Amino acid sequence: MKKIKKPVWIAILIICVAVIIGAVIFLINYFRPPVEDSLSRDDFTESSSETATQQPTEATAPTVAPPQKPTATKTLSTFGQKLAPPPEDWSTLSFDELMKKNPDIYAWLYIPNTNVDYPVCQSSDGNDDFYLDHNIYKEYQFSGTIYSQSLNKRDFNDPVTVLYGHNMLNGSMFASLHNFEDDDFFKKNNTAFVITKDKLLTYLIYSAYTYDDRHILYSFKMDDEASLRSYQESTLKPRSYDKQVRKGVTLNKDNKILTLSTCTNDGGNTRYLVQGVLVDVKQRKPQ
Q: Are 41 and 90 in contact (CB under 8 A)?
């Protein structure tokens, strides 16, 4: 038997050590909570002290504030579903403060009873997948950020808006979207909220299922009525073993759909999608 020379053994040892170190770094990054976990919407809301009314003095008579007009609301069909209440701070979340952190932040996504409570970014430098592995401070981070691509406008007024997020093993980012695979969870949880600088958008979650890895916005021409209808039908009648679909929901060309996309545990050629249809729009004073 031919002996392996000592330099070869050393080379093999170095490679093995490098592989082990790489694996350890990968696991640390995979399980480490994202920076956004240390943030909350409370960090970016108007301080109550700033909005407190001053007490009148003898020299200044109290002024009576004019009655406020009711918030302009656009309510669409909720298909007979009772929705979850919006987050209490929806009207005071400050996008001026958020954009000081990063001008690419343009929305906040919140889904009750999940871990999804994150700012949403879209890269402004032409790299559509920049936030796949960068945090909101534009620093490299394995968990990335919830983000959209430039194929979508930032106003959620496209027929279909797609948001992407990692399926992290520690439950962060979009991992808890997989809760919707459970029948009972899907029945009891039906609401997603998107807060933008000037609106609160409420979506009825009507469908959740495993899909292939096709790029949705390239595979369907959303500005073509027939192609849009085909996509809508695919969300109402998904060809998936784990599909969840809410009864009574119908879609037309005027509906606005929010598609949330994350990975599955079945390999790189499938995605898990959670679909919501816009059912309510409330105006908010830009903060």
A: no
Asked if residue 51 has pLDDT above 70, the reply is no
Say if residue 92's pLDDT is above 70.
Answer: yes
- The pTM assigned to this predicted structure is 0.79
pLDDT at 76: 77
**CATH value of 35-39+76-283 in 2.40.260.10, 2.130.10.10, 2.40.30.110, 3.40.190.10:** 2.40.260.10
Cβ-in-10-Å burial (0-12, 13-18, 19+) of 108 comes to buried
- Which DSSP string corresponds to 59-86? TSPPPPPPPPPPPPEEE---TTPPPPPP
Q: Give the dihedral sign, CA 249/253/256/259.
A: positive
Q: Cα dist. 96→45, 92, 202 in Å?
A: 10, 11, 22
CA distance 79 to 245: 13
CA atoms within 13 A on the CB side of 4: 7
- Give the whole-angstrom CA distance, residue 144 versus residue 193: 21
> Are 178 and 186 spatial neighbours (Cβ–Cβ below 8 Å)?
no
